[in-house]
Amino acid sequence: MNTINLPEKGQEATHHVRYTDLHCHILPGMDDGAADWDDAIAMAKNAVRSGAVRLVATPHVMRGVYSASPEDIKAKVAELNVRLQDSGVSLEVVPGSEIYLVSGTAREYRAGKLQAIGRSGYLLVELPALRLPDYARREIDRLLAAGAGVILAHPERNRDLCSSRDMLFELRESGVLFQVNAGSLIGVFGHEARDCAESLVKEGMAHFIGSDAHSGRPAAVTEVGADISAALRQVIRLSPSGPGFAALTEARVSRLLAGKL
């Protein structure tokens, strides 16, 4: 099992790239992420030691499995921010969600049932890991037509997408943005996901980076989510923007959260 060596507790992350984690399952009791508040605080500390200054809480919203409402998500984020402040953890948490795309997702968006990333109007949308359902493109188009922005979570883990470069470019041309998982860039999800993630970076289509962290238990990448600062160093090597990638990405996040993307 791959592992990540984090700095010792309390050690400052001065050697890390400062970043915003756009994809993190840190809210306890809402999905398969943090088990309780202690676990959530541990996740936050891991993120800060890795260089995070801000993260977006993205509990799963999956029909018939997880049904976190915008009200519940915002309330839990507010409580987490208070607990982090009380614990001396310098990290801002922003409400969001990871929405599993199904037929009817656009209808749920129009009804106000889906939590966007902050007040941006952008949804973090998840596809199945292997295939691209027949309804996927139609539903994405309906979301865009309804006024939603769409950010695809870890597209590099969808085999159909990665084997169809035309589809990736078509989605991008329609306004869809891509969030790449840090773990994919360092090989956690296999060589196919890594190769696709690297291609997205080289082609300037890795718009955001996320940990997809699910737990604060130390060591296991599959449990904690990858060290984004390590992935960013890999991105800097591959990206046409080179060392400027991190700053460009963080500026894009700031515009996103300000509703100016």
Task: Describe the protein in words.
It is built from eleven helices and ten strands. It has one domain (19-257): TIM Barrel (Alpha-Beta Barrel). The protein has 261 residues and is of the alpha/beta class. It has a seven-stranded mixed beta sheet with strand order 4-3-6-7-8-9-10.
**Largest beta sheet: strand ordering:** 4-3-6-7-8-9-10
Helicity range of the residues? 25-40%
Oligomer: single chain
Biggest β-sheet: count, sense, barrel? Answer: 7 strands, mixed
Secondary-structure content class? alpha/beta
**CATH H level: which superfamily?**
Metal-dependent hydrolases
| H/E topology pattern | EHEEEHEEHEHEHHEHHEHHH
Principal-axis shape equals globular
Q: Work out the radius of gyration.
A: 17 Å
The portion of residues forming beta strands comes to: 15-25%
Q: What average pLDDT do the residues reach?
A: 88
CATH architecture: Alpha-Beta Barrel
- Number of structural domains: 1
Q: What's the CATH class, please?
A: Alpha Beta
Q: Would you kindly provide a brief summary of this structure?
A:
Helix content is 40%, strand content 16%. It is an alpha/beta fold. The strands form 2 sheets. A 7-stranded mixed sheet has the order 4-3-6-7-8-9-10. A 3-stranded parallel sheet has the order 1-2-5.
